[in-house]
Structures are given as structure tokens and as C-alpha cells.
Write a structure and sequence with these properties.
By secondary structure, the protein is of the alpha/beta class. The chain has 23 helices and 21 strands.
Length: 514
């Protein structure tokens, strides 16, 4: 295939990977955090980003993930190169023209290959690709891309790839997938039943292929399981009313970006209560208000006054952010001196910062997503820009999201739908708590529909939560958000969803009685 043809077909079928699907693929391929991976068509780099995040979770400061990425488009490569850390190989070339001398062996393949249809390729190129890779029929460009990509795998290697949904139902698609399956000891296939958020808003549903044990056995093409784009297996979605609402919901990553909060490297030194700040002789100009625990954001909205009052009550809501550490800053210098030089060298976050005492707390965020939860996470909106540590997630809404819509996002989290979604999407942690990594939080479904206005509901629910009555807040959210989905039957749907949420919650806590 010529480079010119690939440029043309790339832009005909550039289904850049939604973040939640990228996270799913990365979880399969990245097992140790020190792999060498191949991405044959990097596009906007979503798969690279997801794999790097996954590697850091798996291996922390020992992560050494290396990429070989390929794309024909110069601008694409230049854009990715701007943020990609050093140590990776990016190749501007038609991937189908690469060879083992250029790529080398890899531990895994992570790919969203071009979905270019067979009839979009010139006949001579179609015939040449079929002869070269040994497949038949009218399969699109994704087939030679995957067959060529897996040829670079080491024995035992893994693959995670997105393919067109039609591949599961057409004879030529199933024959092509069968060729891939024969190369692996184990294969799983997930059919995506709802529309992912492709970058170009395409209608393609898609499917995901997971494979492991390259060259260590052979598999038949398995029966596909049905999944939502958000990562829930459809067979497990109950009650039915929840499945209905889920298909009409929007993933949080569609309306906001999420990131971890500030990492101090030494909370005991950098975080202070108001009394500790005064005792240390540190000026207000050298500290910044910050939320550091879920108990600091107990309502639906938090203000600077809320955080100041918590600080006066002994909570550490001040972050040490000195302007400088000159001799005149005696209190600051004494505080920083509590961190000995050997710790500055050994602690990753202290060692990598320049200067080491300057915590990067960013420009602030619009809201906070609680990370560890007992009854489900909340999104707490800032009356002004917020800052938080990495015990919480930062949420930055898209600029075109109105204040009213942001309030509805927060209300959706406390609704019966949001409470059940929490039990489905969260990960059970020690002590029965629910944990939401960034990948989980990004997949969280939100009931955000055109024409719905929060009105007084947000303020009423906020007051109820501050008074310690989550049930009242939930009923307020349900009355606003469920009628547009279920009509007059919304009270029944609310009961069914909350009953299921409570059952799952009791099981998670170890208190369920049959």
C-alpha cells in the first residue's frame, strides 16, 4: 500500500480512541509497567497516554514502559512528540512498510487500527494485501494492520485492539479474526453495544479483541460478550431500568477532564492546620487553601470559607507554597528543614521537582471527585477554583458546560442511578470502601439531558447533605433527573435501582444477609 493511499484512507476512517476505551486496552496490555509496546497507528496518542498512566500504577517509580509508535501523518507525530516523555521511538512511515529491523520485538501490541473499508482501497492494493497476509474476502485495512502488528510480538506477548463492530457479523470479518486467534493461547472478544465517543462522532459501534500467549497455543474465535462503552458487561446490568438509563447517560470524560491532585512528597510538612501555620510563623502569602480529605468536601459545593473554617477546626487545609526561601522567610525555612537532605534525595516527588520545595498545585479545578468512598463518590463543585491533593481527583469541566449543567452532574452522582453506578464502576478496597482510580472515574455515567434545569434542587440537596441526610438529597436528585428517562414510572425505577445499590453495598461491606 502506498503512503499516499494511507494518508487518504486515514482521514476517511480516523476513529480516534475514546479515553475510557483506551484505559480498558491499557489495563490488558500493561502488566508490569516495564514492557516494550507497539502502537501501529498512534493517532492522537490516546492509547500511549493510557498505557503510560497504567504503567505508573503498576510499577510506580520503577515504571519503564517503552513505546514504538508509527503514523504516516507528520502533524500527528509532532503533536504527540510534544508531550511524550523521552525514551520512546516514533516512526513516520506507513506501518505496513515497516520490518523487524526497524521495529524489533515487543511485549505487547495496543492498537486502534484504521477502519478504512475494503472498497476504499485500489483493487491492486486490496489484492496485494490479501496475498501478503493470507486473508480472504472484503475485510478492511484493520486486518493487515493487526496481522502485521502481532508478527512483532515476543512469545507469550499480549494484544489489545479495537476492530469494527461489523467484524463480528460478516463472514470475512470472522475469518480474519480467526486468523488472529490462531496465533494466541487465549482470546476474548467484547462487542460494544452502545456508541463510543469517537473523536469524529461516528456511528461505528466497535468491538475489542484481547489476546495473550502469542505463539504458545491456538484459539478458536470465541463467542463475543456484550459490553457498554463505559466498561460494564451488559449481561450483568440489572435492574433493566438501570440498563435503560445507562445507555442514555454520558460518560464523565465526555464533559470533563480528570487528573490527580497535587503530590506533596511529605504531607506532614507541606500540609498544615490554621494553628500549625500560626505556630510556625508562616504568612498567609506563603500558603494556599487546599482540600486533602473527602471529609473536607462533604456537601455538593465547597467554598474558600468552608476550607478556612475546617483549618480553624484543626484540619490541614493549608498547603505550604512559599514565594521563596530567603533568610527573611524564617518560618518557611524552619518548616522545610523538617525534611532531611537524605529524604529529599530518596523521595521521588521531592527529587524530581525543581526547586524541590515547590509543590505543583496547578491552576485549580472546577470540582473534586472523591477518591475513596463508603456510600459512593460525589462531585463537589467549587464556589471558586479549587485545589486538592492526590487523595482526591481534580475535575475540570469543558468550557461550554453551563453552571446549571455542572450542578446537574453533581446531582446525578447522588441520585439512585448514581449510587448504583458507583457500586458497578467502583473497585472494592480494604475495609469495604469503594475506590475510584482515574480510569474508573472517567467512565462514570452521568444523567445529563437537554432541557433539564437544576432550579432549586442543587441548593436543597446541598443543604440536606450538610445536615447529614443523604436520603433526602437522593430523593431530590431523583425527582429532577429520573422523570425525563422513565416518565411517570420514575418512582418505581428509583426504588429498583436503590434496592440493587444497597444489596451490592451490603455485599461489599460484608454485611449482606440472604
Amino acid at each position: 500500500m502506498s503512503a499516499h493511499a494511507q494518508i487518504e484512507t486515514k482521514f476517511r476512517a480516523a476513529y480516534y480512541t475514546p479515553r475510557t476505551m483506551a484505559d480498558t486496552l491499557a489495563e490488558w496490555v500493561v502488566q508490569t509497567g516495564v514492557e516494550r509496546l507497539l502502537e501501529p497507528s498512534i493517532g492522537d496518542g490516546a492509547l500511549l497516554r493510557a498505557a503510560l498512566v497504567r504503567a505508573n500504577l503498576r510499577a510506580s517509580d520503577q515504571a519503564n514502559l517503552r513505546f514504538v509508535g508509527c503514523d504516516i501523518d507528520h502533524k500527528t507525530l509532532a503533536d504527540v512528540q510534544r508531550w511524550l516523555p523521552p525514551g520512546h521511538i516514533l516512526i513516520r512511515q506507513n506501518f505496513l512498510d515497516t520490518d523487524h529491523d526497524l521495529i524489533g520485538e515487543v511485549d505487547g501490541v495496543i492498537s486502534n487500527p484504521p477502519f478504512t473499508r475494503n472498497h476504499s482501497l485500489p483493487k491492486a492494493e486490496r489484492d496485494g494485501l490479501r496475498d501478503r497476509f493470507g486473508y480472504k474476502g472484503a475485510a478492511g485495512l484493520w486486518v493487515p494492520f493487526l496481522l502485521h502488528a502481532i508478527s512483532f510480538l515476543k512469545p507469550g506477548g499480549r494484544m489489545a485492539a479495537i476492530v469494527p463492530g461489523a467484524a463480528l457479523f460478516s463472514n470475512y470479518g470472522r475469518e480474519a479474526l480467526d486468523l488472529v486467534c490462531r496465533k494466541f493461547e487465549h482470546v476474548e472478544v467484547r462487542q460494544i453495544v452502545d456508541k463510543p465517543l469517537w473523536s469524529n462522532h461516528a456511528e461505528e459501534r466497535g468491538a475489542i479483541i484481547f489476546a495473550r500467549g502469542y505463539g504458545e497455543g491456538s484459539s478458536a474465535l470465541p463467542q463475543a460478550t456484550r459490553w457498554s462503552a463505559a466498561g460494564l458487561q451488559v449481561a450483568e446490568i440489572k435492574p433493566r431500568c438501570f440498563a435503560l438509563a445507562l445507555l442514555g447517560a454520558r460518560q464523565l470524560s465526555e464533559i470533563a477532564s480528570l487528573s490527580i491532585g497535587a503530590v506533596t512528597g511529605s504531607n506532614k510538612v507541606f500540609l498544615m492546620s490554621e494553628a500549625e501555620r500560626i505556630e510556625a510563623g508562616i504568612a498567609l502569602d506563603d500558603v494556599t487553601l487546599i482540600a486533602t480529605r473527602a471529609r473536607h468536601v462533604r456537601s455538593l459545593e465547597v467554598s474558600e470559607d468552608d476550607l478556612r473554617n475546617l483549618g480553624r477546626d484543626g484540619e490541614r487545609t493549608w498547603l505550604l507554597t512559599p514565594r521563596d526561601i530567603t533568610r527573611t522567610q524564617v518560618g518557611v525555612r524552619r518548616r522545610l528543614a523538617l525534611i532531611p537532605p537524605d529524604k529529599r534525595r530518596s523521595v521521588l516527588w521531592l527529587n524530581k521537582r525543581s526547586p524541590w520545595w515547590k509543590v505543583d498545585h496547578g491552576p485549580g479545578c472546577d470540582a473534586i471527585f472523591t477518591y475513596m468512598n463508603d456510600v459512593g463518590p460525589r462531585i463537589v463543585i467549587g464556589a471558586t477554583k479549587l485545589r486538592c491533593t492526590n487523595t482526591l481527583h481534580q475535575v475540570r469541566f469543558l468550557q461550554d458546560l453551563t453552571v446549571d449543567e455542572r450542578q446537574i452532574v453533581a446531582l446525578s452522582m447522588v441520585s439512585s442511578f448514581g449510587q448504583l453506578a458507583a457500586e458497578r464502576f467502583g473497585r472494592s478496597y480494604g475495609g469495604g470502601l469503594l475506590k475510584f482510580e482515574l480510569a474508573d472515574a472517567r467512565r462514570f455515567p452521568i444523567l445529563l439531558r437537554n432541557g433539564v434545569r437544576s432550579g432549586d434542587a442543587f441548593a436543597q440537596a446541598d443543604r440536606a447533605i450538610r445536615a447529614g441526610d443523604m436520603d433526602v438529597a437522593r430523593r431530590i436528585a431523583d425527582a429532577l433527573l429520573l422523570p425525563p428517562v422513565f416518565g411517570l414510572s420514575w418512582p418505581k425505577a428509583a426504588v429498583e435501582m436503590m434496592d440493587e445499590a444497597l444489596k451490592l453495598r451490603e455485599t461489599r461491606r460484608g454485611t449482606f444477609k440472604s
